[in-house]
Amino acid sequence: MARSPLAARIARRLAWHLRLQDPKREPRNKSPWLPELRRWQAERLKRSFQRFLTDPKRRPAAEFFLSDVYGDRDFTRRDADIARVLPMMQRLLPKRLLETVADAMELGVLSHALDLRMAEALQALAPRRKRLDEALYAEAYREIGLPRLRARQIALIRSVGAGFGRALKMPGVSALLAFSRGPAKLAGLSELQGFLERGYAAFEALGNPDKFVAEIERDEREVSRRLFEGEDDPFLLD
Questions:
Q1: What is the average pLDDT across 151-166?
Q2: CB 3.0–4.6 Å: which of 26, 105, 114, 130 could bond 13 by disulfide?
């Protein structure tokens, strides 16, 4: 039986993810700059999200983005869960929610691919340094370029957020996620189940999910523009 386009997309993303994560096939995973880059980016995002984190209604969604969507977490197990149970997921979960899962996978893979390029650039620019700062980050960002891929990365951030926002409007999704909690735990799918439940719960607390994800997209596009153009204080937004 032929796979659906969505299943084929998820399978391709998983294969790309596993290939990029393999230190034998991708030696840049061993770069000493990679953990420092991820640490620095996570801290930068936390600062950029400060206004969301201080708002009780938007804090859960902001924390979900930082931990599950755009943070420095390794999503290999979650994505392997997805591929393993995809046939069952297609029967049980709405297509729009599955598309959100596929977008999250693509975002994780693309972000890791860009991080590998950044780590390589940082090693060439500052082989003796061990700590990253804003000026060096901006220099490496411009060094690797790839504005279209950066734009795609930001578009995927919005797609994931918008996908969970749409899921709130679907009848029965909350009950379905609650029903699948026990079977998911027994099947060893806690990473995937947790991702879906955390995302749904976080966006349920928002009064306006579309406004929230639009603000993130606007800010990240502005940061990217400032970085590429070499502006001072690229992360200082109004």
A1: 89
A2: 105
**pLDDT at residue number 68:** 81
- 8 Å CB contact between 154 and 221: yes
Determine the Cα–Cα distance for residues 161 and 201; give it in Å rounded to an integer.
Answer: 12
- CA-nearest of 52, 58, 64 to 198 is 64
Q: Give, in degrees to the nearest 5, the angle at Cα 215 between 214 and 221.
A: 90
Distance set, CA 102 to CA 14, 90, 229, 238 (Å): 10, 12, 32, 32
Give the N- to C-terminal CA distance of the chain in Å, as an integer. 53
Q: Please tell me what DSSP assigns to residue 155.
A: H
Q: For residue 157, what are the CA distances in angstroms to 50, 99, 125, 129, 200?
A: 17, 13, 29, 31, 16
What is the C-alpha separation between 192 and 203, in angstroms, rounded?
A: 17
Each residue's pLDDT tens digit, 12-48: 877 887 888 888 899 999 999 999 999 999 999 999 9
Q: Closest by alpha carbon to 68, among 208, 216, 202, 205?
A: 202
- How many other CB atoms are found less than 10 A from the CB of residue 125? 13
Could you give the CA distance from residue 150 to residue 141 in angstroms, rounded to a whole number?
Answer: 10
- Over residues 76-116, the pLDDT tens digits come to 666 666 666 666 666 666 777 778 888 888 888 899 899 99
Residues 6+ away with beta carbon under 8 Å from 149: 110, 114
